[in-house]
Write a structure and sequence with these properties.
The complex is a heterodimer of chains A (about 220) and B (about 550). Chain A has about 220 residues and is of the alpha+beta class. Chain A is about 25% helix and about 20% strand. Chain A folds into 2 domains: about 1-55, no CATH class; about 70-180, Alpha-Beta Plaits (2-Layer Sandwich). Chain A contains 6 helices and 8 strands; from the N terminus they run ααβαββαββαβαββ. Chain B has about 550 residues and is α+β, with helices and mostly antiparallel strands. Chain B is about 25% helix and about 20% strand. In chain B, a hairpin with a 6-residue loop joins strand 8 (about 175) and strand 9 (about 185). Classes of the chains: A alpha+beta (about 220), B alpha+beta (about 550). The structure holds iron/sulfur cluster (4 copies) and FE2/S2 (inorganic) cluster.
Chain lengths: ~220, ~550
């Protein structure tokens, strides 16, 4: 809970001695502790089945992610299955963290778009998920709607997404209307080694879980 | 006309110009720039783009007309931004944009495009009213050399056509077909072929002509720019060296991106030749990164400091043993005047070596032409001559002297020795100290090999063949452990305990200005790299 502090305001008598403030803080903590313990106790005694503290039992239980969440990137294909990205480098320019690296190249004669990326990398270790790249893209090629929140890795190199992994995002939790129907079907053929697709309907919206089960 | 000036009024202020001045030029000179595509100060008037609309008022009658075709007249009133003018400009732009493709995201010109800029300033902010299918033309046409033409983006200003015809003097391009289907095309089957093709990319106001060496490499807004001098020949053309250091760690040290001409009335006007323009690859390719010392057939990499120490020891020992006449120095006409001054101070004044030269028989010569190209392919031969870096007595070529045993030690700056001397001659040398910018295949490893900075990596000056001394500016740090000639020679002098060798550019300038009248003024801007934001820094694009 944010409290805005007026810096010109002088301390009152109770603020000046700090102790009432400390007592207030401790009281809040104690209250949460007691209330939670009470709920856990009730649940353990099967008197009331309300969960205790608002802890989500991750990874068994997952939170439904909001549809507008900005999370791991992907690059889209156009209706004809060609890359939408024309390597214009506007996302690279817009990115405040310098995490996008593009090497453009001239596309083969038969491709109508003259320019395409030879290398397209996003360094997730640097990314602050601001979404500027998505805003900047004139071709609507880059999106941050994969819903993939699990991006931990045991090396920094693995955090650099290349073009292939941007086209075929790994385990996905897609939520909300953005991923219903056409969109998810468009993505599916590009998912390498899909072993499971799970569909749940929850009050908050539909969840698709697509992924490799070995991960 | 008796009166030598004509006074006119531009936006209510009075100015006077010589008769025959065209109104567009007059407005530009008076600080009321008029947008234009087809007008170029160096080319004939074509008057086809209709972008330079202004309101002209004479004897109480006024009309909106193009500025470039009309010349000044006594009592003329010019208005450059009345509502009628703005409306006319908007109409011209709308017309130019009717069939223009929506290519900005991948058009190399985006960011330095006149059409983009003018649209931003004067265009119709609403959606296009054109609902028919656009006329499509062929994109990606190779029209010779490094040129690619995108006919769809062309605004048919004919600047490129007029440039080849009027400046180069060769009909290379023409306009074919009619109306909306008009297109620029090469007249010869094989495409354009002359030594100045790159200039049309600069004067093309849009992205219709692009350069394959820069095409799709970097976006223009990434580029930083530094004003400097082309090292390609003795003309001393003024250039902007444009480079990009972003993501450098990934791009394997490819820093220089392109070279654009910089306007200089006296030297090169708006142009440069293709060999100068496309010579930037040498700045980053195949550079010598580290010093090495070779002892008893063992070659090892050392720091530049150590190499300088080793060189000093060997030179001292050599002079003690063989005397000064057996040690020759080959200075480089590619070095700056300041570096050469230090060299002169050390080897001529300090060590008193008689055998100093800057030329080596057999080095390639260029072909001079009418426009810019000079036969001397080095930027600073005149600087060397001014510093009298010539042998004290005539004694035959270096090769014969080495063969006769008169010279047995050589200190060489940037000459392609393996190509110009035979392996036997190199083998005969007892001492070979080489300062080199690039990796060279040695059939006889020099005793000491030191990496030198190229022109883009140092401040200094070059003197052109006709004696104009011009400033060169450092764009980025030397590659690897390379040092400038000034630094290395000063360090070498320190090790040899020779006094009077300048340590800084300023000291070298003071010294050299006392040596030749050519060095009295060093012209050209002194500048560090600038983020390329100003239109001036974009070369001549916005003329
Ligand atoms: S989300 Fe922001 S920080 Fe991340 S890549 Fe896009 S622009 Fe850069
Ligand atoms: S902005 Fe869009 S089209 Fe441009 S490089 Fe980035 S993803 Fe590709
Ligand atoms: S020529 Fe200019 S307006 Fe046309 S596509 Fe290129 S940048 Fe855009
Ligand atoms: S190619 Fe460029 S310079 Fe030539 S007519 Fe077209 S717009 Fe003008
Ligand atoms: S500049 Fe005057 S018509 Fe083109």
């Amino acid at each position: 809970m944010a409290q805005y502090v007026n810096h010109d305001q002088k301390f009152g008598a109770t603020e000046a001695i700090y102790y009432p403030g400390i007592a207030k803080g401790v009281a809040l903590t104690i209250r949460h502790f007691v209330v939670n313990m009470w709920f856990h106790l009730m649940k353990a005694l099967r008197i009331k089945a309300r969960p205790g503290a608002i802890t989500i039992q991750y990874p068994d239980q997952r939170r439904v992610l909001p549809a507008a969440l900005r999370i791991r990137h992907r690059i889209k294909l156009n209706e004809d299955g060609r890359l939408r990205c024309t390597a214009c480098m506007l996302c690279e320019t817009a990115c405040p963290d310098n995490c996008i690296y593009i090497v453009p190249m001239e596309s083969p004669e038969e491709v109508p778009e003259e320019k395409m990326p030879a290398i397209f990398e996003i360094d997730l270790a640097r990314c602050c998920f601001c979404g500027m790249c998505v805003e900047a893209c004139p071709m609507d090629a880059i999106h941050m709607d994969t819903g993939i929140a699990e991006m931990a890795s045991d090396s920094r190199e693995n955090l650099v997404l290349d073009l292939e992994s941007l086209l075929k995002p790994g385990p996905i939790v897609c939520t909300g209307p953005a991923f219903r129907g056409k969109e998810i079907l468009e993505l599916l053929p590009h998912l390498k080694d899909v072993r499971a697709m799970e569909h749940q309907t929850q009050p908050e919206g539909s969840i698709y879980r697509v992924g490799k089960t070995n991960r | 006309m008796e009166n030598n000036t004509i006074s006119i009024e531009i936006n209510g202020e009075s100015f006077s110009f010589p008769p025959g001045t065209n109104i567009l030029k007059a407005c530009n000179m008076s600080g009321f720039p008029v947008p234009h595509f087809c007008y170029h100060p160096c080319l004939s008037i074509s008057g086809n783009c209709r972008m330079c609309m202004v309101e002209l008022e004479l004897n109480g009658r006024s009309k909106v007309d193009v500025a470039c075709v009309n010349t000044v007249a006594e009592g003329l009133k010019v208005l450059t931004d009345t509502p009628a003018v703005l409306k006319a400009r908007r109409a011209s732009l709308e017309f130019l944009l009717l069939n223009h493709p929506l290519d900005c995201p991948f058009c190399d010109c985006a960011g330095e495009c006149k059409l983009q800029d003018y649209y931003e300033q004067y265009g119709n902010p609403e959606y296009s009213r054109f609902s028919e299918e656009k006329v499509h033309k062929q994109k990606r046409q190779s029209i010779g050399h490094n040129l690619k033409l995108d006919a769809e983006r062309c605004v048919l200003c004919t600047r490129c056509v007029r440039f080849f015809e009027e400046v180069v003097g060769k009909k290379e391009l023409g306009v074919g077909h009619r109306g909306a289907h008009s297109e620029i095309h090469a007249l010869a089957e094989t495409g354009v072929d002359n030594d100045y093709t790159g200039n049309v990319v600069d004067i093309c106001p849009v992205g219709a002509l692009t350069d394959t060496t820069f095409r799709f490499q970097r976006r223009t807004w990434y580029l930083q720019s530094v004003p400097t001098i082309c090292p390609g020949c003795a003309r001393g053309c003024n250039i902007e060296l444009q480079f990009d250091l972003e993501h450098e760690y990934k791009r394997a040290g490819k820093r220089a991106q392109r070279i654009k001409p910089r306007y200089n009335e006296q030297v090169n006007q708006w142009w440069i030749c293709d060999s100068g323009r496309y010579g930037f690859g040498a700045i980053d390719d195949n550079r010598l990164q580290q010093a090495s010392v070779s002892e008893e057939g063992q070659n090892r990499t050392v720091s530049s400091n150590e190499a300088v120490k080793a060189a000093a020891k060997l030179i001292r020992r050599f002079i003690d043993k063989k005397g000064t006449a057996a040690l020759a120095v080959l200075a480089s006409p590619d070095e700056t005047n300041e570096g050469l001054t230090a060299l002169r101070q050390l080897f001529r004044e300090g060590l008193q070596l008689p055998q100093i030269d800057y030329r080596l028989a057999g080095e390639p010569q260029g072909v001079a032409d009418q426009l810019l190209k000079h036969a001397d392919l080095h930027p600073n031969s005149r600087g060397c001559a001014n510093l009298q870096l010539e042998p004290k007595f005539e004694s035959g070529s270096l090769a014969t002297q080495i063969e006769s045993g008169a010279i047995s030690g050589l200190i060489c700056f940037r000459h392609d020795l393996p190509a110009l001397l035979t392996p036997q001659q190199l083998e005969q040398l007892e001492l070979l100290v080489v300062f080199e910018t690039h990796v060279v295949e040695w059939n006889r490893q020099p005793e000491v090999l030191l990496p030198l900075a190229v022109y883009a990596e140092q401040n200094g000056s070059f003197t052109s063949f006709d004696g104009i001394t011009q400033q060169i500016n450092r764009a980025f740090a030397p590659s690897g452990e390379a040092g400038t000639a000034l630094e290395l020679i000063h360090a070498l002098a320190g090790e040899l305990k020779i006094k009077g060798v300048p340590a800084t550019l300023e000291k070298a300038r003071v010294l050299m200005s006392s040596l030749s009248a050519d060095f009295a003024t060093v012209s050209g801007p002194v500048a560090g790299p600038s983020r390329q934001v100003s239109k001036e820094a974009r070369g001549i694009q916005h003329v």
